[in-house]
Amino acid sequence: MSVQLPPATHRKRALPQGELEAASTLKLGADQNTHTLSLSEARLVINKVLENKRRGGKKYEEPENLTKTLDYLEVFARFKDEENIKAVERLLNSHTELEMFERSQLGSLCCDNAEEAKSLIPSLQHKISDGDLQELLDELTKLRNFTE
Q1: Residue 8 — very low, low, confident or very high, per pLDDT cuts 50/70/90?
Q2: Domain architecture of the chain: domains with CATH
Q3: What secondary structure letter does DSSP report for 12?
Q4: Which phi and psi angles does 21 have, rounded to 5°?
Q5: Number of continuous H segments (helices) and E segments (strands) in the chain
Q6: Which of helix, strand or coil describes residue 22?
Q7: Residue 41 has what pLDDT?
Q8: In the beta sheet, which residues pair with residue 21?
Q9: How many whole angstroms separate alpha carbon 130 and alpha carbon 27?
């Protein structure tokens, strides 16, 4: 005995134009050159916006999803101090051979060594030598404040 299902009442999801992936070759489509933020930068930006809203005089109640996002960023943002966040951004932006996405990933993941970084961000494989990448990772580690 087979069951006859009624026709679908939802719209079909439009498939993305082109293949999007962050693998050995970055294929980010229209977002390829979009400025991206590390988790630390996102935390800083959101906190500054909220600080300005609170100072505005009007009562402002944070939406639950914003509160959850801030909680997440508080745990996973590797850099907490504004000066260190700016220094990390300057350091990463000096590596123009890397895409913005790769820079923000390096700033968020804070890998211990070049092998780990290239494993987590496969598109780095042929863009930067292990020695140069390790030097960059060591500089990032120096900027981290582990007491926060």
Answers
A1: low
A2: 36-146 (1.20.1250.40)
A3: P
A4: -160, 155
A5: 6, 2
A6: strand
A7: 97
A8: 27
A9: 23
Confidence of residue 17 (pLDDT cuts 50, 70, 90): low
Indicate the pLDDT class of residue 93, thresholds 50, 70 and 90. Answer: very high
Report in angstroms the alpha-carbon separations of 123 from 24, 83, 99, 117, 119. Answer: 4, 29, 9, 10, 9
Nearest to 110 by CA among 86, 132, 88, 125: 88
Residue 117 near residue 95 (C-beta atoms within 8 A): no
63: left (phi over 0), alpha (psi -120 to 50) or beta: beta
Q: Whose structure tokens read 């005089």?
A: 57
Predicted structure pTM score: 0.78
Ramachandran category for residue 57: left, alpha or beta (phi over 0 → left; psi -120 to 50 → alpha): left
Query: For 82-105, what is the mean pLDDT?
Result: 96
| Closest alpha carbon to 19 in 28, 11, 10 | 28
pLDDT of residue 18: 56
pLDDT at position 11 is: 61
Tokens 């820079």 correspond to 103
Cα–Cα distance between 3 and 11 in angstroms, integer?
A: 23
Contact 73, 46 (CB under 8 A): yes
